[in-house]
Sequence to fold (604 residues):
Amino acid sequence: PPRMTPARAAVLEAAKAASAPLTAKELAVKAGVSDGVVRALAEVGALEAERIDPDPPFPPPDPGRPSKSLSGEQRRAADALVGAIEKGSTQPVLLDGVTGSGKTEVYLEAVAAALKKDPSAQVLVLLPEIALTLPFLKRIEERFGAEPAAWHSDVPSAGRRRVFRRVLDGSARLVVGARSALFLPYRNLQLIIVDEEHDAAYKQEDGVIYQARDMAVARASLGKFPIILASATPSLETIVNVDQGRYGLQSLPARFGAARMPEVSLVDMRRDPPEEARWLSPPLVEGVEKALADGEQALLFLNRRGYAPLTICRRCGHRMKAPHSDTWLVEHRFENKLVCHHTGFTMPKPAACPECNAVGALSPCGPGVERVAEETAERWPEARRAVLSSDTTQSAADMRAILEAMRNGEIDILIATQMVAKGHHFPGLTFVGVVDADMSLAGGDLRAAERTFQLLNQVAGRAGREAKPGRVLLQTYQPDAPVLNALAGGAREEFLAAEAEGRRELGFPPYGRLAAIILRARDEKLLQDCARAHRAAAPTAQGVELLGPAPAPLYRLRGEARIRFLVKTRRNVDIQAYLDAWLASVKTPNAVRRIVDIDPYTFL
Fold:
């Protein structure tokens, strides 16, 4: 520069020493000066500014890189999928493989085939949760030698902008993401993989309501390209589509290598109850102790967050509820808070009952993962323990750290909710104890038994994935329940056949159609008048059954009362046309909100 100063000299030295481009701010920080010094040097020509695209293209994946060694069954399934892609088949295919069978390596062969076939092809891999997305990105990079484009709620806005732009221009050829990744502006989408296709997380229930798995099948059909649905516990809807010939099937009936499926047994809590104020039965305690003595890992599973699902006054019986809602407050003892998991309301746990003012009378009822963790700490104080739930992991980085520590053998006992159930590989885990196997069987959910089977089968599948055998114990007060006996006996096909027959007799999906109509309002009289008007306007149609209006099981939520209708039709009825005709004939007041949910997954 025409005039040199110590500050300018420091900037120039920092610029010379830099190994990569720096922004003006970054260069100023390195030199220990203000941004103005850097900009003044650029004005006099001593530095030259260059504009750099903040959204660089993603490196192209290399489909020719060698894959991992596949077993004979894996190779057969992979060759069938690759052959279908090379021939241009558009039939959806179910990749049905037991936990630990290596489904991922098989469908990555199909991904490689699609990328080879068309040098501009784009592939989307859908995963149900961020917890699966993060470690999966590493596997993709190892397989194809390039970073895939990741799309999920934890990606910052700049990262989402980069993915959006590069998907649009076609340079992002391999995308891994949660359900909303389906709606990115692909230039040449040629294959979709839906991993864990059975997972309820694919159902979007806020805002625009949709089932991402079904939307993915529709997207592939419209685009005339293949889609692969992968699962160890396929949904009944997908199984029926296979049986009726609409979907193809590739099976992986055994685990990879020397690993074998774990032994699953039931613990009858009526015969082997836990000690008073405890939640782990003697057989479960023995199972954990044996795993620890053998230098192995144990997993205690309870799909209930917090310390206790209900807080009740021992004196007057008052139950702590969220304000303006019919939802119980869950105690979180680690933070001394009461939390509503439906509305997000939170408050400090009061010292006295708000109803009778009895001090110290509020008592937790039932166990959550925190309460199980408390018992675990008392029983095995020397063991390395961790709790994995959405309440204890504040970010994706926290979640990743716990999962990585478990994979590396740095945790002896993991206490976890359903976040641990899918897709994770823990080499040292040999024992799984399910604290409450009956929990998801209650309620009016038509998929309750199916969901219980899927969840507990996935949890059980975390055990014994290496050479050491795995063992699983399910604590239950209903040892005669068909779904639990199917899990213990490995009778998946028999369970699915019985479940399908029950649905067929009742005309429930996939043998019939359902739609839920939910009316919500703060004014109860207005809401009830609106519900009666809807009922009066409902047309009569052959093959259509209208149930309701009825108060929702959670009648009041966030100050709004809710009334539900359920429309049930035969499979050959155009349910959308029926709803259009019905709802168009009813004027809904501005103060009443109406929600339509085709194929509802929750009934609260």
User: Anything to note?
Assistant: The chain has a mean pLDDT of 91. Residues 72-87 form the longest helix (16 residues). The two ends are 71 Å apart (CA to CA).
